[in-house]
Amino acid sequence: MSTKKVAVLVGSLRDASVTRKLAKALAAVAPETLSFTFVEIGDLPHYNEDLETETPPAAWTRFREDIKGTDAVLIISPEYNRGVPGALKNAIDVGSRPWGKAVWAGKPAAIATASPGALGGYGVNHQLRQILNVFGMPILPTEVYISGLYDLFDDNGNLAKEDTQGFLTSIMKGFEDWISKHS
Q: Measuring CA to CA, which residue among 165, 127, 163 is closest to residue 143?
């Protein structure tokens, strides 16, 4: 099997983001046939159609090119007020334009959501599924909710529990299979 390039979008912008740690942990346990590029979203100007000219903002162009150059998308996100963090929703909107040229179209995707609470980002997970479905993205049917996010890592930033690593490994193996099926 050839190596597949996966764009990773992290919904949290904090430097010490536990969600980013989770994203790195997922990439670390993935099969070797997947390579990961973390595509940054914090520098994207808010989507405004007036800026969609012959020379759109450079950050938009960089972001769109970064996504175009990949075979699949992995989104890891916290839940803000039972919904999608604003920066992540903006990134999705930037990638959806100009009309008819969405960089998301048909790319296989997986979504993992997390929260310190018991629901593990249930609300944001389903909102993201609804949004990405518009682009005809085959979304991994396995719904990944990670609760107790702040207890997931030890003081050194490593996964604190072996069973969590096993769970994440199985998710990423399933994602590899999903990408192969939908490439």
A: 127
Give the alpha-carbon dihedral of 17, 18, 21, 25, to 10 degrees.
Answer: -160
Cα–Cα distance measured from residue 133 to residue 65, given in angstroms and rounded to the nearest whole number: 21
* Dist. CA 183–CA 178, nearest whole Å: 9
CB 153 within 8 A of CB 160: yes
Q: Residues 139, 110: contact at Cβ < 8 Å? A: yes
Q: Taking the model in full, what pTM does it have?
A: 0.96
Tell me which H or E stretch contains 24.
helix 18-29
Residue 36 has phi, psi (to 5 degrees) of -120, 135
CA atoms within 13 A on the CB side of 100: 0
Before 98, cis peptide (omega within 30)? yes
Q: Are 7 and 65 in contact (CB under 8 A)?
A: no
Residue range 44-74, pLDDT digits in tens: 999 999 999 999 999 999 999 999 999 999 9
